[in-house]
Amino acid sequence: MNTSNGQSHPEYRHLLGIEGMTATEITALLDLGDRYLQHYRDDAQIPKVLKDRTQINLFFEDSTRTRTSFELAGKRLGLNVINMSVASSSIKKGETLIDTAMTLNAMRPSALVVRHNASGAAALLSQKVSCSVINAGDGSHEHPTQALLDALTIRRRKGRIEGLRVAICGDILHSRVARSNIHLLNTMGSRVRLVAPPTLMPPFIENLGVDVHHDMREGIKDVDIVMMLRLQKERMQGAFVPSTREYFRYYGLDADKLAHAKPDALIMHPGPMNRGVEIDTVIADDIDRSAIQEQVEAGVAIRMACLDALCTGSLENTA
Questions:
Q1: Cβ–Cβ < 8 Å for 102, 128
Q2: In the beta sheet, which residues pair with residue 37?
């Protein structure tokens, strides 16, 4: 977690990335998310701990899961949630990102949830506002709440994170999800492998403490978790793979490749999925091994935990 910005609301803190967070802070968020998840699985009444506060979702990139889950998370906590439509905002009239942030800040929200196509955008905004800023994905940099919900899903299914072998497979080069997961899994004691063709593997990625593989079967051999990533064609300029058919042949997860992982290996995907490109439909829908729908459910719970912790300062004593 990032410390407060020292402005007029010292209780506020920011969630800009997983890098730099401690295992204690991560565990505290996972524990809180776990309680919220169990609350609504049991149809229990969730206290409106943030009643009458305001949350603004400012999304410069399209999103279904992340924006909807942040909206639902805020409403379950009692927040007044505002979804800003960037397409019809003053940004389209030439207003800068910082001017927009200052305008929103004057409305005194408690939380600003930001998704932007530029790395560092959320960090920049956090320096200009007096509310809590949550990074909902910035360029190819980080997507911290996705890594947290992935970790919550893993912990609930496997009972632990420490000591697990996790293979992250696919478009590593353009993936903020991969970067956040690498930081989180390493911090929590997992052993991380990256599997991708050389054209989709960032240079010097080994410096982050991961094992790099270019062969799918070798890369997922005996792993506990197989985490697939989407080919992010919208971030690609030029030919990174010969064709989607060729990509699936060598790097798409199917029954033949999955047989090299542990028999109880968990299958994950942050969505949206390209069926038949990075994952076979039968594998994606395997009710025993696929945790993809559980990831969506965990997303609401972990975003509730983040909003609660940031707006109330409940993690101040965990760092």
A1: yes
A2: none
pTM of the model: 0.92
Q: Which two tokens stand for residue 65?
A: 């899961």
Secondary structure (H, E, C), the chain: CECCCCCCCCCCCEECCCCCCCHHHHHHHHHHHHHHHHHHHCCCCCCCCCCCCEEEEEECCCCCHHHHHHHHHHHHCCCEEEEEEHHHCHHHHCCCHHHHHHHHHCCCCCEEEEEECCCCHHHHHHCCCCCEEEEEEECCCECHHHHHHHHHHHHHHHCCCCCCEEEEECCCCCCHHHHHHHHHHHHCCCEEEEECCHHHCCCCHHHHCCEEECCHHHHCCCCCEEEECCCCHHHCCCCCCCCHHHHHHHHCECHHHHCCCCCCCEEECCCCCCECCCECHHHHCCCCCECHHHHHHHHHHHHHHHHHHHHHCCCCCCC
Cβ atoms of 142 and 179 within 8 Å: the answer is yes
Q: Residue 80 pairs with which residues in a beta bridge?
A: 54
CA atoms within 13 A on the CB side of 174: 16
- Residue 62's pLDDT band, with cuts at 50, 70 and 90, is confident
Number of C-beta neighbours around residue 206 at 10 A: 12
Q: Tokens in use for 281?
A: 């439909």
Distance CA 175, CA 268 (A): 15
Q: Are 240 and 156 in contact (CB under 8 A)?
A: no
Cis ω on the peptide bond leading into residue 10 (within 30° of 0)? no
Residues 6+ apart with CB under 8 A from 312: 11, 49, 50
If phi > 0 it is left, if psi is from -120 to 50 it is alpha, else beta; for residue 108 that is left
Say how many C-beta atoms besides its own lie within 10 A of residue 95's C-beta: 13
pLDDT of residue 240: 67
Phi, psi of 131 (to 5 degrees): -105, 175
Q: What is the pLDDT of residues 30-52, one digit of tens each?
A: 999 999 999 988 888 899 999 99
